[in-house]
Design goal:
Blueprint (H helix, E strand, L loop, with lengths): L1 H26 L1 E18 L27 E7 L4 E9 L5 E9 L17 E9 L2 E7 L25 E9 L2 E6 L3 E4 L7 E3 L6 E10 L2 E15 L5 E17 L2 E11 L13 E3 L5 E3 L1 E12 L4 E13 L2 H4 L4 E16 L2 E14 L4 E14 L1
Parallel strand pairs: 9-15
Antiparallel strand pairs: 1-2, 1-3, 1-21, 3-4, 4-5, 5-6, 6-7, 7-8, 8-11, 9-10, 11-12, 12-13, 13-14, 14-17, 15-16, 17-18, 18-19, 19-20, 20-21
Length: 384
Amino acid sequence: MKLCTLIKNTALLSALVTTSLQAASLQDTQFTFGGYIKLDAIASQYSDGSLPSGNIGRDFYIPGLTPVGGEDEGTAFDMHARQTRFNFSSDTALANGKSLKATIELDFMATPNGDERVSNSYSPRLRIATIAYDGWLFGQTWSTFQDVAVLPETLDFIGATDGTIFVRQAMIRYSKGGFSGALENPETTITPFGGGGRIVSDDNSIPDLVLRYTHKQNWGHISAATLIRQLAYDDGSSLDTTENAVALSISAKLNLGRDDVRMMYNTGSGMGRYLGINAANGAVLNASGELESIDSSGGFIAYRHLWNEQWRTTLSYSWFSADNETSLTGMGVTQSTRSARVNAIYSPSKELSFGVEYSHARRDLENESQGDMDRLQFSAKYAF
């Protein structure tokens, strides 16, 4: 009997000690949860055909997907809540006086699309998963080559997409003061000799290197970044080729009282998937089976005006251009894209907003074919 009592008391004491240790641990950690719920209603009109049902380009603007060469105009209406996202973060005070931060963020923009017949179900996807400690960051987040702070406020998922660096990927980054340096996950997109598709290659032997410096002042900030990368392709048979590439990105945000101007310019070789959501590939295969990098450039400028405490408007223009060697890529590749958009957003409170946005986009191919898109979008968003 005494043995049973001793065992019970020991178990109870162990449970109390464990609970106390967990409570002490939680006292050193702060947890936060946030995100938003967003509804989008999108009406699109295309001059040269239409995008098929389920194409991601109907849910948000992708420059390289504007239809070109169709015989008739096309229209489409879509409504979804796929941009809805949530994030979870922790901040732990460590015994050595430093802090350990972790973040996980998901949304529902994964492809392929869900079934719209009955349930409109969409799978969650990983956006961000990071560990930050003593100036170091490990995990997946926005590329160091992208200045997230200058992205314009748009109802579209990205907005000024043509000239925007837009990539999330795994990396190891170190930051101190205004300087950041990162080794990031490499991936090469390639145009086959003569055109006719895209090869996605994961044959790189070294990571992409990004160096960035940002100067902040009361008037805003200016930032410059360099991307140094290896483009690689190995078909497992006779082709095994690499090419080096370098690109530059300059961005700025200028505060004009309560208003602001945001801008970005990007240029260089082999940017590929980094610019305009892969409007052009990073390289092309020549007749000898060797990679040649593709030069490209693009940028945007956006102006945001606050009419009062509840109403605001953003006007933006964005462009992209590729310097294709048409004897290698063929004439059916994208030569340039551009888009302009204007919106009006009403916020009865800081958590809730309603908006309407009009955008016009154009895509030109090397064969001089072109296609236009006009889009009207309504959104309702609750941020928490």
